[in-house]
Specification:
Elements lengths: L8 E5 L4 H12 L3 E6 L2 H8 L5 E5 L7 H13 L4 E4 L14 H29 L2 E6 L12 H21 L4 E8 L5 H4 L4 H9 L3 H10 L9 H11 L11 E4 L9
Parallel strand pairs: 1-2, 1-4, 2-3, 4-5, 5-6, 6-7
């Protein structure tokens, strides 16, 4: 199936690893042109090397001017901005009574304000051209709050609401905004040294491998998703083939959230 992404100018945040890197590669495989955005410029360069007509931008998306800077960089490099994937995000194991104001603000800036600023900068340009796609990478935790980090869950819920608000505002002008809600993914966030598995193990006294086995067993599919599986759904939503999908929040979670919405 031709997704008709050839030549489209795309921005992917959090593109130095995990779902973001996989999405950049998937878009490039469809012959899209990709601006990879993240803080780690060395890792960005490594990912971009396998992404064809790609460019990189070392940027902290939580800075107030990040949205304008990313969109301007994309326009200067590729002549337009057609697709935006707001993927930058992170979490850590932190019980509710240990969350500080700083923890809450960090999650808010990263998941809500960064997405808002990037959409605010990109969507009007897309609307002027009568075509655009925005995909916000949210989380199953935004649909069913997790006690391991309530600040993450709350801000991911807000990101889902923000996606819907932008979807309704821009659909009539050809800009389709959607969200994906991944469950646990076999990615550095979970499996890398110091990742969620190790953090959980330290608090429970269990072995990280045991923590991962227990987490996988809770999922109806019996395993974590993969970065490429999530990226495939994102890439479809970025395409011309997703022309009747607006304001959706697609679960890509192996059945983790027991909901039909």
């Amino acid at each position: 199936m031709d997704l008709e992404l050839a030549g489209r100018a795309c921005i992917v945040t959090g593109a130095s690893s995990g779902i973001g890197a996989a999405t950049a590669r998937a878009l490039a495989a469809e012959r899209a042109r990709v601006l990879l955005v993240a803080r780690n410029e060395e890792r960005l360069a490594e990912v971009a090397a396998g992404c064809g007509d790609a460019a990189t931008l070392g940027l902290d998306v939580t800075t107030p001017d990040a949205g304008d800077r990313a969109v301007l960089s994309c326009v200067e490099r590729f002549g337009s901005v057609d697709v935006l994937v707001n993927n930058a995000g992170t979490s850590r194991v932190r019980p509710l009574d240990e969350l500080t104001d700083e923890d809450w603000q960090e999650q808010w800036e990263l998941h809500v304000m960064a997405s808002l600023r990037l959409m605010r900068a990109a969507a009007p340009r897309m609307a002027e051209r009568g075509w655009g796609r925005v995909v916000n990478v949210c989380s199953s935790s935004g649909k069913r709050p997790s006690s391991s980090n309530v600040a993450y869950s709350v801000t991911k819920s807000a990101q889902l609401a923000l996606s819907r608000a932008f979807a309704e505002a821009y659909a009539g002008r050809g800009v389709l905004v959607n969200a994906v809600a991944p469950g646990p993914v076999e990615s550095p966030l979970w499996t890398a040294p110091g990742g969620l598995a190790e953090q959980s193990a330290e608090r429970s006294g269990a072995d990280p491998a045991e923590v991962l086995a227990q987490a996988r067993a809770k999922i109806p599919l019996g395993r974590f998703g993969t970065e490429d599986e999530i990226a495939a759904v994102i890439t479809f939503l970025c395409s011309a083939r997703a022309s009747d999908v607006v304001g959706a929040a697609w679960s890509v979670d192996g059945g983790s959230v027991p909901s039909i919405v």
